[in-house]
Amino acid sequence: MNLKEYYQKKSIPKLKKELKIKNELELPKLEKVVVSLGLSEARFDKKAAAERVESLKKICGQKPLALRAKKAISNFKIRQGQVIAYLVTLRSKRMYDFVDKLLNIILPRIRDFRGIPSYSFDKSGNLSLGIKEQISFPEIKIEEVLEMHGLGITIVTTAKDKKESIGLMKALGAVIIEEKKKKEEEKLESLEEMREKRESQTKVAINLSKEKEE
């Protein structure tokens, strides 16, 4: 039984019961998977860059899309129009096959893996993961690897919030653990929230001043 069939036969009844949703069309489901790979220092080495692209192609079974820099950044030695990353968007059968492989083969093979941390899910119901080494995927042969590199994986769902997304992934067989973010990540997030709050307050103040002038 593939993952799509498992979702239809096993996951849907579980989700109906857990989320208390009767209409199947309103239940959360997988929408797409985005796999990304940054070139980093490999952008200066054609052979290393080619190897990364080939590894992404093998892992996803699809030709990657090149992402180019919109503007030059001298501090990072990035030129405008330079390829800085690659990504692949998976849908339908390839999406289900990839998620099935990720949950049942890739993640269990990672050392000290205890489950997907709950903080990996965002408020919009999407799941973001980082794989540190490409050799975690069975398509990559370690003897052919020039250097290790990581991958970014984002599983986009139709879930309305974090709770629905976690419920969906659990219903698909994922192991989810309640885990807090590291202090450094929490600090960055709180700083971002403070910045957004200040910007919002500034906009309100500007609007009030305009109203007074009028």
Residue stretches low in confidence (pLDDT < 50, at least 5 long) are none
**Overall pLDDT:** 81
Per the principal axes of the C-alpha atoms, what is the gross shape? globular
* CATH class (first level) name of the largest domain: Alpha Beta
Q: Please describe the biggest sheet, giving its number of strands, its sense, and whether it closes into a barrel.
A: 5 strands, antiparallel
Helix-and-strand structural type:
alpha+beta
Number of helices: 5
Give structural attributes.
alpha+beta; globular; 50s Ribosomal Protein L5, Chain: A; 214 residues; five-stranded antiparallel beta sheet; two-stranded parallel ribbon; 2 domains
Quick structural gist:
The chain has 5 helices and 7 strands; from the N terminus they run αβαββαβββαβα. With 214 residues, it is an alpha+beta fold.
Task: Give an overview of the whole structure.
- This protein has 214 residues and is α+β, with helices and mostly antiparallel strands.
- It has two domains: 3-180, Ribosomal protein L5 (50s Ribosomal Protein L5, Chain: A, 2-Layer Sandwich); 181-214.
- Helix content is 43%, strand content 17%.
- It is built from five helices and seven strands, in the order αβαββαβββαβα.
- The chain has helices spanning 3-19, 46-60, 92-109, 162-171, 183-213, and strands spanning 30-38, 65-68, 83-90, 116-117, 127-131, 151-157, 176-177.
- The strands form two sheets. Strands 2-3-1-6-5 form a five-stranded antiparallel sheet. Strands 4-7 form a two-stranded parallel sheet.
- Helix 1 packs across helix 4.
- The longest helix has 31 residues, at 183-213.
- It is globular, with a radius of gyration of 21 Å.
- The mean pLDDT is 81.
